[in-house]
Amino acid sequence: MDRFAALSEPTRRSIVEMLGQGALSAGEIGARFKVSAPAISQHLKVLKEAGLVRVEVSGQRRIYRLDPAGLDEFDAWVRKVRGFWGPKLDDLEQELAKAETTKGESDANSGT
Fold it and tell me: In this protein, which residues make up the domain named HTH arsR-type (predicted)?
C-alpha cells in the first residue's frame, strides 16, 4: 500500500499524529480508540507495510515509532506542490490587487 493510501483512513492518520509525539506500545495506541485491538493491529500493520512506522519488539510489547524515511515522500510532495502553487498564488494576488486598484479608481471617477 502506498503511503498516501495508508493515510487516507482517519484512524491511521490519528495514529501517525500520536506517534509524532513519541513512541507508543500497541496497547497504548489501542487504549486511545473505541475500536477492537485486532482493528488497531490491522491499522498498525498497514502503516508498517507503507513504511510510515517501525516496530520494535520489547518482551511482550510491540513499540511503534514513526519511520522518518517514510515521511520523506510527503516532504517531497509538499515541496513539489508549494513550488507549483507558490508562484501561481503570487500571480493571483497581484491580479486581485490590480483589480481592486482599478475598481477604486472607477468608483472615484463615478463619484460613488
Answer: 1-96
